[in-house]
Design goal:
single chain, alpha+beta, Glycoprotein, Type 4 Pilin, OB fold (Dihydrolipoamide Acetyltransferase, E2P), 3 domains, 8-stranded antiparallel beta barrel, 4-stranded antiparallel beta sheet, 6 helices, 18 strands, globular
């Protein structure tokens, strides 16, 4: 395994060049061995404070088309959609949160609805209900007989057999489908955050309806930039009516164009950036007011 460093302490990471943090190379007697070493190395990376492409890289090398050596320049478009990647990453985070509770990690208090019956419920069954962006996320599990850390879980309509291990004080390792991933679990005022593969997920207790409503109302106030970039096109103006999935603004970032779409029908209240302007990550690009439910 070899890690070519791309940045050093004190370096400035601008929006004008690819933000390369490092380059991983692995060698093996054959492709399969090299890929196993690469997967092990990608799992061991620890990058905090910024978003990385680690989840994408792990998804690529796990795909059978890539593993067979038959990938082409159309591989990402054909086999790894953004929706599929987001779903897989969210699933791993939910499973990690479940594992933390199942093993009794101190991430909450007895007043929390998910801890009322204790981490090991009658018959070794447990149901964890969370919310993410006001959407319910439910995972059910049955502890494997004779095991303290192995569970059969059902999440997002899929069943898995997962083994959990605690790494005190606040990490859990989950093993499923022939791979393992670590996650850091942090208690918040209304739920937990899970950091895994360079991405952080925020979950709230499903019973905390007031928290979910607050998060939803905040999200509806505007559309934010997913990463630093340049505004290429502004396609709407203040006062304009828009439809769900309509492209409102186009950003250029990392040599690619990113369409920012309306999440619902509504009215543009304010456009905060003009064409040619540079934006920071999470900057509110457009303020949008959702139409009242009919």
């Amino acid at each position: 395994m070899r890690n070519d460093i791309g940045t050093y302490a004190g370096d400035e990471i601008s929006t004008y060049y690819d933000p390369l943090l490092g380059k991983l190379l692995t060698w093996g007697q054959d492709r399969a061995q090299a890929l196993r070493r690469m997967d092990r190395a990608l799992t061991a990376y620890r990058v905090e404070g910024v978003h990385t492409n680690l989840p994408l890289l792990r998804a690529i090398i796990a795909h059978p088309v890539f593993r067979s050596g038959e990938a082409t320049t159309e591989f990402l478009d054909l086999h790894l959609s953004a929706e599929a990647l987001a779903l897989a990453a969210s699933e791993a985070a939910i499973i990690s949160a479940f594992g933390a509770l199942a093993l009794g990690m101190d991430v909450g208090s007895s007043a929390d609805p998910w801890l009322i019956s204790g981490p090991h419920r009658a018959g070794g069954r447990m149901v964890l209900a969370l919310r993410s962006d006001a959407s319910p996320q439910v995972i059910e599990g049955q502890r494997v007989a004779g095991s303290a850390g192995e569970w059969r879980v059902s999440v997002q309509g899929r069943e898995k057999r997962v083994r959990f291990s605690l790494v005190p004080p606040n990490h859990v390792i989950a093993e499923a489908d022939g791979r393992a991933w670590p996650a850091e679990i942090t208690r918040t005022a209304s739920g937990v955050t899970v950091t895994t593969s360079g991405k952080t997920f925020t979950f709230e207790w499903a019973a905390g309806e007031r928290h979910a409503a607050h998060a939803e109302s905040h999200r509806q106030r505007g559309l934010t930039a997913p990463m630093p970039g340049l505004v290429l096109k502004v396609l709407v103006r203040a006062g304009e009516k828009v439809r769900a999935h309509q492209t409102l603004i186009v950003l250029e970032a990392m040599k690619m164009e990113h369409n920012i779409e309306a999440p619902y029908d509504g009215t543009v209240k304010k456009v905060n950036y003009a064409e040619g302007g540079r934006v920071a990550e999470s900057a509110v690009l457009i303020e949008l007011e959702q139409d009242a439910a009919k």
